From TrEMBL:
Keyword Iron: yes
Protein name (database record): Molybdopterin oxidoreductase family protein
Regions crossing the membrane: none
Start and end residues of each Molybdopterin dinucleotide-binding domain: 643-746
Alphabetized Pfam families for the sequence: Molybdopterin, Molydop_binding
Keyword match Protein biosynthesis: no
Domain Molybdopterin oxidoreductase: 57-493
Keyword terms of this UniProt record: Iron, Iron-sulfur, Metal-binding
Length: 754
């Protein structure tokens, strides 16, 4: 607390993560470089000093019984969670356990959960929201540069001469960066690649009609970027010297031949990316003007969920190909900026939140990686499961799972193939860890463990420009709520005590006598009570919460030698004091890569040249070419419509569960292009049915020209009518590199309800 009574914390409602100050009068002020938007302001104003019933808080652990939900003690609830782990692991093996987390967890919590579930319990079924939203950004970066870490900073927007947004609506989803960094650079030409005419498009065209909207057909981002590359090559707009010095020669030769000889001229590209109803000559003019911008000296691009969930890692790689082709990397105003919807999604990527990854992007299938990680965790290497876990999308259809831990998110809404997933959850023991009562997930949960919420907990967050910052608690919870870190540590130590009280067959020397598979097959015989107790016993504060510093020191020490090493540019370890000072610390300094330096793989010493990525053939086919007769369903955050509707929707999206289901809208609307509506006899407000082989839903329609023909838009925002886009999305259509579901590659049919 400051001398004047002000309290400082972080706004963690998106990947920007910036500092806020709450005045003694309860006003919320953004005091960092970016500021605070309506999401953070809405949250703090709703929660500070609030009563639990006003914000639908859990006030203690709960257990489902034959008589309904019963309030229980923490000891009993932790015992039940430990029992479920031990029973299912004994009867069905370590693959029966699953963990699904959220990008709102602190970095310490992400580390502790990985160490417990993947290290000690041996399950690789450990995923998070990043695998549904940001994983393809990391996948594209790894395809081209060999690592997942971004090079650029938000400040690059200020220095750019041209800025490209791919599938990104920052005016609604990252408004502080959009206002302070993007719009204030009046000299830069901005290009928005998005089928919809979004708030970002409207504002940028109002600022300057020379800004460009490319309303390409959904699924044609890779094709567009190949067209840009062809234009640059044909008009001497690329940098042969940079390519010769920084790109693998074989991949460069193959890429250049592919682009030069394929059907990628401006006329051929425009014919394939132009939506129905748009003048191709208009699109050609916009395409050529945008392509020429890549010849400017300073170019910045940004991709977000729109492209991640559409064409995936190949789409992000196609953008990075252009940066490699032109040399726009690693200097002020040059590079690709990562923007995420989840505040700590970048930490999820660094911690390897995927069934195929270990922390720092090592692979579970590689023996040398398992040995390295096991050594860091103080475990024998055989304890880490060499078999990849499930993709998060496959949680819905796999028969492996028996017990699922859910931290701070809602799989009753977030999973593709949602109807199937809801059926599957009825067969699982679901341990739900969250702050707020959510009627959707409560239908499926069995054990509820209340955690501290954003303004009550402390911890480290890693934002999209590699900046580590510390969130201070603004107030203490007035009831029984623990941090995520404490909950995991208590479950781990309870299991250790249980193993001591009822010891399994002795494991001392057992691994030397038995085959590892035989040892693991003996249920819980492979668990080590002493190792569990030691690994999760940290110094505690006065409230019984594990202290951050020893956990951070453990993470920092483990990161050494990796590309994601949490150190300053001069190699000094980043300390907790560094993170708590000013606006935190940026790992590897202001810019990770500088011209003339080599790129790196997963380990910092793995120097390598960049690799041009050649897309698979299906990534060059817009969705409508594959979905003849159907519509492409575009999903996203936030409603369209009037300014008041959009503002309320943005404010409520991340905090809707916190303020209760009573504040949810009655229904969501599906937005239909006016020409499609006229063809089908649909008027505004009419009920329509969206259906495909996966599922169906009904909702009212809104008619708009802001959605192109052949496309529909439906928000993910919770509503009382259960209008979930994921009732229609597939759990089989996943990115081959990252396993992220391609939710926006969804075909639906549309019909008027009689």
């Amino acid at each position: 607390m400051d001398d004047d009574g002000s309290r400082r914390s972080l706004c963690t409602f998106c990947g920007v993560v910036d500092q806020v100050t709450i005045t003694p009068a309860g006003k919320v002020r953004g005091t960092g470089s970016a500021g605070v938007c309506v999401k953070g302001a809405h949250y703090f104003q709703q929660h500070l000093g609030s009563r639990p019933q006003d914000v639908q808080r859990f006030t203690g652990p709960m257990l489902r019984s034959p008589y309904g939900w019963e309030r229980v003690s923490w000891d009993y609830a932790i015992d039940m969670a430990a029992d479920s782990i031990l029973a299912d692991r004994q009867d069905f093996g370590r693959d029966s356990l699953g963990f699904y987390g959220v990008g709102q967890m602190t970095t310490e919590a992400l580390w502790i959960a990985k160490k417990f579930f993947q290290g000690h319990l041996g399950t690789n079924n450990i995923c998070s929201n990043a695998e549904q939203c940001l994983a393809n950004n990391a996948g594209g970066h790894e395809l081209v540069f060999g690592n997942e870490g971004p090079f650029s900073c938000y400040d690059d927007y200020r220095h750019a001469e041209a800025i490209f947004f791919y599938g990104h609506n920052p005016a609604a989803n990252h408004p502080t960066i959009f206002q302070r960094y993007v719009r204030q650079n009046r000299g830069a030409v901005k290009v928005v690649v998005d089928p919809r005419r979004t708030d970002t498009v409207d504002l940028l065209l109002a600022d300057d009609p020379n800004n460009i909207h490319l309303p390409v057909r959904s699924g044609s981002d890779v094709l567009l970027n190949i067209g840009f590359a062809r234009h640059l090559i044909d008009h001497d707009g690329w940098d042969p010297g940079y390519v010769a010095g920084h790109a693998d020669p074989a991949s460069a030769e193959q890429f250049l031949r592919f682009v030069r000889t394929g059907p990628f001229s401006a006329d051929e590209i425009v014919a394939r990316i132009t939506p129905h109803g748009m003048d191709p000559a208009d699109m050609r003019d916009r395409f050529v003007r945008a392509a020429r911008l890549w010849t400017r000296d300073r170019v910045v691009s940004t991709s977000s969920v729109g492209i991640n969930q559409t064409v995936g890692s190949a789409g992000v790689a196609s953008i990075l190909n252009l940066h490699l082709l032109t040399g726009h990397i690693g200097a002020p105003g040059r590079g690709h900026v990562r923007m995420a919807g989840q505040s700590n999604a970048s930490a999820e990527l660094a911690m390897g939140y995927s069934g195929r990854l270990l922390p720092f992007r090592m692979k579970v299938t590689e023996e040398v990686d398992r040995e390295r990680m096991a050594g860091l965790w103080g475990l024998p290497s055989w304890r880490i499961n060499p078999e990849p876990g499930l993709p998060v999308a496959s949680f819905a259809t796999s028969e492996r799972l028996r017990t699922l831990f859910v931290f701070g998110t809602n799989p009753a809404r977030n999973f593709p193939n949602l109807a199937k997933w809801r059926e599957r959850m009825m067969d699982l023991c679901v341990v739900y860890i969250d702050s707020y009562y959510n009627p959707e997930i409560m239908e499926y949960a069995d054990i509820v463990l209340p955690c501290r919420t954003k303004h009550e907990t402390s911890g480290i967050f890693l934002n999209g420009e590699r900046r580590l910052q510390y969130m201070e608690p603004v107030e203490e919870p007035g009831f029984e709520a623990w941090s995520d870190v404490r909950i995991v540590c208590e479950i781990a130590r309870t299991i250790a005590r249980r193993l001591t009280e009822e010891p399994p067959p002795a494991t001392t020397g057992l691994d030397a006598l038995l085959d590892v598979d035989e040892l693991v097959a003996k249920g819980n015989a492979d668990l080590d009570a002493h190792a569990l107790d030691t690994a999760f016993s940290y110094p505690l504060d006065e409230y019984g919460e594990p202290l951050t510093e020893p956990i951070w020191d453990e993470i920092q020490a483990a990161s050494r030698g990796f590309y994601n090493e949490f150190s300053h540019a001069d190699g000094r370890p980043i300390t907790l004091t560094d993170i708590r000072t000013g606006e935190g610390a940026q790992w590897a300094g202001e810019r990770r890569y500088r011209p003339g330096s080599p790129f790196s793989g997963i380990r910092a010493a793995d120097h390598r040249l960049a690799t041009f990525h050649l897309p698979a053939e299906e990534r060059l086919v817009p969705y409508q070419d594959r979905n003849r007769g159907g519509f492409v369903l575009i999903t996203g955050r936030g409603a369209m419509g009037g300014k008041a509707v959009r503002r309320n929707n943005v404010a409520m999206f991340n905090s809707s569960t916190a303020t209760g289901a009573a504040n949810w809208p009655d229904t969501n609307f599906v937005y239909v292009n006016d020409s499609d509506a006229a063809r089908l006899g649909i008027t505004s407000g009419a009920r329509v049915r969206l259906h495909n082989p996966i599922g169906s839903l009904e909702c009212p329609a809104e008619i708009t020209a802001d959605v192109p023909p052949g496309h529909l838009y439906l928000s993910f925002h919770p509503d009382k009518a259960d209008t979930h886009p994921n009732l229609l999305t597939s759990s089989d259509n996943i990115d081959p590199v990252t396993w992220q579901p391609l939710l926006k590659d969804t075909r639906v049919d549309l019909a008027l309800v009689p």
